[in-house]
């Protein structure tokens, strides 16, 4: 059985959770069995744009960075299995001490989006929203990376930390994921994401957690003036990635 995540001590209500605990719950529970929903959501999102829409792909692998433009229509869906996952179980304590546990299986099917190599040789980057669940309590992979969009080599390496074995190397490749029961809802979420992207110039979001401005305005990266953060912590956690693209003339994440 994979390890079970549970906040200790058990709080009397969600309001008693610290911010860190709440974020941990959020990411682990939300993404736990959501790999296919995440892949479907990304697919619906990209489907809202013409296939030749240019997508900027930026990844960091140690000191090596990739920064290229790829047509949105060239993305693929990758599906594979994770065996003996190590950190895939989320447990939630609901009112009246009911518990909700998800992800106790020995095999966890997984899906993510692959971006094409601009030279046309296979794909070079993986976009995996569900991978947030693997982070160090939701703050990215031990604070080193958001682990959302990664070069293939680094992504494959990360996967070995989260399950004893996987079949990523021989992942099944397709151009669309099948319909899911949440299709309509996912399409509405994708439309919201598109609207948000289109309003980015006037309403930016946090470069680490994606939060929109709340009561407090987001703080701008003073170096590039292109990235925004909730607070100093979120800026610090985003820095290992952002530092590679923190330049005044180029749009940052
Ligand atoms: Zn934030
Ligand atoms: Zn910056």
UniProtKB/TrEMBL annotation:
InterPro entries per the UniProt record, alphabetical: Znf_MYND
Entry keywords, A to Z: Metal-binding, Zinc, Zinc-finger
Domain of life: Eukaryota
Tagged with keyword NAD: no
Domain MYND-type: 206-246
GO terms, molecular function: zinc ion binding
The protein's name in its UniProt record: MYND-type domain-containing protein
């Amino acid at each position: 059985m994979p390890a079970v995540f549970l906040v200790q001590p058990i709080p009397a209500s969600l309001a008693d959770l610290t911010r860190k605990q709440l974020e941990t719950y959020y990411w682990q529970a939300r993404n736990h069995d959501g790999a296919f929903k995440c892949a479907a959501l990304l697919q619906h999102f990209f489907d809202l744009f013409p296939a030749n829409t240019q997508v900027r792909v930026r990844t960091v692998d140690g000191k090596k960075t990739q920064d290229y433009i790829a047509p949105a229509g060239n993305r693929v869906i990758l599906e594979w299995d994770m065996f003996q996952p190590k950190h895939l179980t989320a447990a939630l304590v609901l009112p009246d001490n009911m518990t909700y546990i998800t992800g106790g299986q020995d095999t966890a099917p997984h899906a993510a989006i692959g971006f094409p190599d601009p030279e046309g040789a296979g794909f070079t980057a993986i976009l995996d929203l569900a991978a947030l669940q693997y982070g160090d309590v939701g703050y990215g992979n031990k604070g080193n990376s958001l682990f959302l969009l990664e070069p293939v080599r680094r992504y494959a390496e990360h996967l070995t930390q989260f399950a004893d074995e996987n079949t990523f190397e021989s992942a099944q490749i397709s151009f669309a994921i099948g319909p899911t029961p949440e299709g309509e809802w996912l399409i509405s979420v994708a439309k919201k994401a598109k609207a948000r992207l289109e309003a980015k110039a006037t309403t930016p979001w946090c470069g680490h957690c994606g939060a929109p401005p709340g009561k407090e305005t987001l703080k701008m990266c003073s170096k590039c003036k292109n990235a925004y953060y909730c607070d100093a912590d979120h800026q610090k956690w985003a820095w290992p990635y952002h530092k590679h693209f923190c330049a005044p003339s180029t749009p940052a994440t």
